[in-house]
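User: Please fill in residues for this 414-position structure.
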């Protein structure tokens, strides 16, 4: 065994220990990465369920003094909330569409008011945030799936809504209290409001920006903070998300070049989901990439751009195959991921659209890959590939827009 690594019984596990090896294959576990630092009691409980012993890396583990300090901080912090699913994807998706439509109307009006120098309707903003938090707490998968419905000509508005939904879903995953979620959701929805002060020819320029144009672009966080805090009288915490969502962990962001310890948790969350939605969307200057590819890219940027541990938690939240991903199975069938199985991350629930001959299913069929039926055809069924949006002529909006539970035949779902 390598120097600095020791094997211990799972009964000896503590917060802060870095798990280097398990006594079983990693892919058969809910842990996303081969090697991670224990941050929550739930992770210790899961390791005790799955393993007899593990190998820890002493060099990468949190030192005892830091561990004690973290424990003291945890004692002072608000307790982590554990949220249960209160509705199925099929039950929630219609409501999710309604909430998104209401939010779109609110954001369209909000942007128009900003452009004309009017006060924004804060009551309407509060209402849509309240409804979105309610929906995400019931079933985040249904609401996250709609973030995959991209429209280039409505990018800024849809991006604002997507960042709000993704930030709230991530906050739910992290166990943040509801009051914090509502503040986070408001800041996420308004994070790009400063872009309304940026010339459209700069925002929509397909080529590389000049130095002068990039300076205009980099001013939008400053404009956002001024609008939110000074013009509309919202809290500093909400304004800071607009001000700091382009800051980066190693100090390479803008407008202030902050380092990681100077950036708030909420701004770190918004920074992650902002980039994720941006690089999975079609823009005039780039094609959107599939969610799985985007997560891989972002993981490669974690040292200079993002809080690494927070990014790992985000990937845990959305899954290796995020909700809304278009996938092909080993059977040849094609479908859309409609929910993630946290304990079996390679085996999500899929709404099958095309059969093995690439002919449409009608009605569509829901297959839970973590609970496949006894049918021999599905005995070794798994995801073979993540497809690009529009593959086989599939418009996912046709399938995620009001999807009634009676529409889909269910196979392999309890």
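Assistant: Residues filled in for all 414 positions:
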């Amino acid at each position: 065994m390598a120097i600095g690594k020791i094997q211990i019984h799972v009964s000896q596990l503590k917060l802060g220990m870095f798990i280097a090896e398990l006594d079983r294959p990693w892919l058969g576990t809910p842990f996303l990465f081969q090697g991670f630092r224990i941050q929550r009691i739930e992770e210790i409980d899961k390791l005790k369920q799955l393993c007899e012993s593990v190998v820890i890396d002493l060099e990468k583990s949190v030192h005892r003094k830091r561990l004690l300090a973290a424990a003291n901080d945890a004692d002072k912090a608000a307790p982590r909330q554990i949220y249960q699913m209160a509705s199925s994807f099929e039950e929630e998706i219609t409501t999710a569409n309604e909430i998104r439509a209401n939010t779109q109307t609110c954001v369209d009006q909000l942007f128009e008011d900003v452009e004309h120098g009017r006060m924004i309707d804060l009551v309407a903003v509060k209402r849509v945030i309240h409804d979105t938090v309610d929906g995400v707490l019931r079933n985040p998968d249904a609401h996250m799936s709609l973030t995959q419905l991209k429209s280039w000509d409505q990018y800024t508005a849809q991006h604002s809504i997507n960042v709000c939904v993704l930030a709230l879903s991530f906050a739910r995953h992290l166990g943040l209290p509801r009051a914090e979620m509502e503040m986070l959701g408001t800041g996420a929805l308004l994070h790009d409001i400063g872009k309304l002060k940026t010339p459209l020819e700069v925002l929509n320029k397909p080529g590389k920006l000049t130095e002068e144009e990039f300076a205009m672009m980099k001013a939008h966080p400053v404009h956002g903070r001024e609008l939110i805090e000074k013009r509309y009288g919202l809290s500093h915490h909400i304004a800071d998300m607009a001000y700091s969502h382009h800051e980066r962990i190693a100090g390479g962001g803008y407008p202030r070049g902050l380092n990681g310890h100077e950036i708030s948790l909420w701004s770190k969350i918004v920074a992650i989901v902002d980039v994720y939605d941006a690089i999975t969307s079609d823009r005039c200057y780039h094609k959107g990439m599939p969610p799985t590819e985007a997560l891989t890219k972002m993981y490669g940027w974690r040292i200079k751009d993002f809080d690494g541990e927070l990014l790992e938690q985000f990937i845990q939240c959305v899954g290796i195959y995020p909700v809304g991903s278009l996938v092909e199975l080993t059977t040849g069938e094609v479908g859309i991921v409609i929910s993630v199985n946290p304990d079996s991350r390679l085996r999500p629930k899929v709404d099958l659209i095309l059969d093995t001959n690439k002919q449409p299913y009608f009605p569509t069929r829901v297959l839970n890959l973590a609970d496949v039926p006894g049918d021999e055809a599905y005995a070794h069924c798994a995801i073979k590939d993540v497809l690009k949006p529009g593959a086989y002529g599939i418009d996912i909006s046709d399938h995620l827009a009001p999807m009634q539970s009676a529409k889909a035949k269910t196979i392999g779902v309890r």
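For context: Residues 24 and 155 are 45 Å apart (CA to CA).
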